Every structure is written in structure tokens, then in C-alpha cells.
Amino acid sequence: ARPAARVWGEDDDAEAERVAQTQSDGGARAAPGPSSILPIAHRFDLPPPQRFKVYTHSLLTRMSVNFTQKRPISEAVSTTCGDFRAEVVDGLLSSIFDNRISSRYRESSDPAFLSISLGESASAAEGCVMRSLNVGCLPGRWRDALSIAVEEAVRMQRFGVGREELRLAIATHLKGARDEAGQSESVTCDTLIDELHDAMWLGCPSYDRYQELEMLEAAMPTLTQDMLALRAQE
Fold first, then answer.
1. Which of 69, 85, 71 is nearest to 170 (CA)?
2. Taking a C-beta distance cutoff of 8 angstroms, is the pair 173, 87 a contact?
3. Crossing angle between the packed helical segments 81-107 and 209-219, to the nearest 10 degrees
4. CA pair distance 184, 100, nearest whole angstrom
5. Backbone phi, psi, residue 126, to 5°
6. Confidence band (pLDDT; 50, 70, 90) for 8?
7. Is 201 helix (H, G, I), strand (E, B) or coil?
8. Beta bridge partners of 131
9. Is pTM, for the whole model, over 0.70?
10. SS3 41
11. Strand order across the 128-137 sheet
12. CB burial class (10 A; 0-12, 13-18, 19+) of residue 213?
């Protein structure tokens, strides 16, 4: 259960200031106002606490392997058109990656994986940006599934995306944005409050669904294959 909301007091201000001072590597910032969540300190330069391990059992029918990279939350602060364009490019890359994985699954008579996804999200509550590669597979085929996931990620990094792939991804994103704008009146209060909370915490402007659609329609024509290829190399 989530902690109950409470009043932000002097002790919280002192703790937030202490945490913020220890975040010299670009971690979460102190909340600018009342919040039930305190900033979390991260050490992005430390290696994982333990080596990768795989456990198998005869009763396991499927398994998942998740690789997550954490980066400073400051990289998610979107205050300029360039920042917004970078967010759109990240979304297009994830969509194209998913399409490639779906094609491999459909074309294989016996696919080694059940699901593979690549995504990125910024969490004000966690105080970091998380980029994740998630692989679902049968226990006995996890090596083959991981090989396919890494192969597709490396292929995108080295060779970028095709013109038709980019066109389809842009069309899909615009359709999704139009659908969300058309359903904006049905967005729940909890969703709106969470979005406003994250925007306040990060210091980003907050937009409604129609404004986001207008920004997408203005940004999409400026995107090129070279821009996505450069972003995939980062």
C-alpha cells in the first residue's frame, strides 16, 4: 500500500536538502513542494551488487530476464523543443525495436522467446531514468532468447532504422496521440495528479493531450533517419 499523504514539514525540508547535497552525480532533486515521497540517492558509477545468476527448476514453465540501466533524473528534464524531440525519438526507437521483434516472432516456426521489449521511463519517485531490456522465454531457451535480444539491440545501434520503419513508427505515434486527445475527457484524476506531481518535481512544463498532439505534429516532420541513428548510438 502507498503511504498516506502528509504535510511537508521542517524535518522533511532538512532531509531533502541533505539528500540533494549528496547527489553530486546528478541524481534526484529535492521536491519543490509538499510530497509524500522523499528524494532517493543513487550512485550511478557503482557496478551491480552481484553477478548475473539464472535459477532453474522443473516446475518453472517460463522465466523473464530484465536488464535495467539507471541514469540521473536530470536527463529527463524537458524544458526545450530539443528535449521534447529527444523524448519523441526515444519513443520511436522503442516502437521500431518492438516491430522488429514482432516480425521475428511471426516469421519463426519455433521462436526462442515469448516476449522481448526495450523501453525507457523517467520516475520522479525513484529519482532516476530507467532504460530496460526485458526478455520473456522458456527456462531451457534463455540463452537463445538473450542472444536475439542483444542482436537486435546491437543491430539498431550500428545500422539505425529504415525509411519505411520510421514512416510507420511516426504514423503509429500520431494515431496514438490523436486517440488520447479524443479521450482526454476520460482521463482519471489520479492520472492527472501523478503527471502534475512528476512535472512539478522535475521542473518540467505540463501539457494537456491536445497540446501534446500539436507538439508531436510539429516535431515529427523534422525527424530524420540520421537523428534516430545518432540517438541509438548513445
1. 85
2. no
3. 80
4. 31
5. -85, -20
6. very low
7. helix
8. 69, 120
9. yes
10. coil
11. 63-72, 128-137, 113-123
12. buried
Alpha-helical runs (H) found in the chain: 10-21, 81-107, 142-159, 163-182, 189-202, 209-219, 225-232
At residue 118, the 3 state secondary structure works out as strand
| Torsions phi, psi for 212 (to 5 deg) | -60, -40
228, 161 in Cβ contact below 8 A?
A: yes
Residue 134 exposed, middle or buried by CB count within 10 Å (0-12, 13-18, 19+): middle
Closest to 153 in 3D by CA, of 67, 63, 30: 67
What is the structure's pLDDT at 52? 67
Distance in angstroms (rounded) separating the CA atoms of residues 35 and 139: 42
Within 56-202, strands assigned E span: 63-72, 113-123, 128-137
Measured in whole angstroms, how far is the alpha carbon of residue 111 from the centre of its chain? 26
List the end-to-end C-alpha distance of the chain, in Å, as a whole number.
37
For residue 68, which of 115, 121, 114 has the smallest C-alpha distance? 121
With vertex at residue 42, the alpha carbon angle to CA 20 and CA 151, rounded to the nearest 5 degrees, is: 140
Contact 144, 65 (CB under 8 A): no
Residues 66-125: pLDDT tens digits? 888 888 877 777 778 888 888 899 999 999 999 999 999 999 999 999 999 988 887 777
86: cell is 529527444
C-alpha cell at 203: 521542473
Measured torsion, CA atoms of residues 162, 163, 167, 172, in degrees rounded to the nearest 10: 0
Cβ contact 193:143 at 8 Å: no
Three-class SS state of 58:
coil
